[in-house]
Amino acid sequence: MSLDELRDRLPDYAKDIRLNLGSLASETSLTDQQKYGAFLASALASRNATVIRAIAAWTEDKLSPEAATAAKAAAAIMGMNNVYYRATHLMAAKDYAKMPARLRMNVIGNPGVDKVDFELWSLAVSAINGCGMCLDAHEQVVRKAGLTTEQVQAAIRIAAAVHAAAAVLDGEEALAA
Q: Which domains does the chain have, with CATH numbers?
C-alpha cells in the first residue's frame, strides 16, 4: 500500500487529514531521511496496522536499512521512555523524578544514524505519546544541533497527521465491527 492508497482509505470527513498527509509528503524543510524517518517512527507510534504497513511500504525505498531500523528504534525506545518520564513528571511526589530510570536506553547513544535525525524522530514519537518532558529534552538537543523551529514543527506536524490518520482508521474499524 502506498501513501496515496492510505490517503484514499480516509473517509470524506477526514479530508483535512488526507490533504495534510499529501502536503507533508512534499515537506522541504527536512532532509529526506529526517522526513521519511519521522513518517515511519510516527506510524509505528500510531499503533494502527494499516498506517504502519502503508507508511513502511512508502518509505522502504526512501530510507536506508540503517535509517529504517533507527526510526523503528526511536518508536520503540520512546514507547518505553514516554511512559516512564511522563509518569515521573505527572506524579505529585517529586522523588521519582530524581531517581535514575534504571532502564536500558543504549540506542539513544548509538542509533546507527546521525544523532540529530534520531532525536528528531524521538521528538515526533514523544508528541504522539504526549510526554512533555521528553518533548522538551529532544527539542533542546535538535535545536542545539542546528535544527530550526520550522524543522521541529515539521516533524511534529508529520506526527500529528499520521496519528490522526491512525485514529480515523481505528474509529472506522470500530464503527464497522
A: 3-176 (1.20.1290.10)
15-41 mean pLDDT:
98
Q: What is the mean pLDDT of residues 148-157?
A: 98
- Catalytic residue of the set 131, 135, 158, 162: 131
Query: For the chain, what is the total number of helices (H) and then of strands (E)?
Result: 10, 0
- Residue 131 among the catalytic residues: yes
Could you confirm whether 17 is annotated as catalytic?
no
The alpha carbon torsion through 93, 141, 136, 130 (nearest 10 deg) reads -100
Q: What is the pLDDT of residue 24?
A: 98
| Under 8 Å between Cβ of 63 and 33 | yes
How deeply is 71 buried, as exposed, middle or buried, from its count of CB atoms within 10 A (0-12, 13-18, 19+)?
Answer: buried
Q: Which of 71, 113, 134, 141 is catalytic?
A: 134
Higher-confidence position of 31 and 103: 31
Task: Tell me how far apart the alpha carbons of residues 47 and 83 are, in angstroms, rounded to a whole number.
Answer: 15
The model's pLDDT over 32-78, given as tens digits with 9 standing for 90+, comes to 999 999 999 999 999 999 999 999 999 999 999 999 999 999 999 99
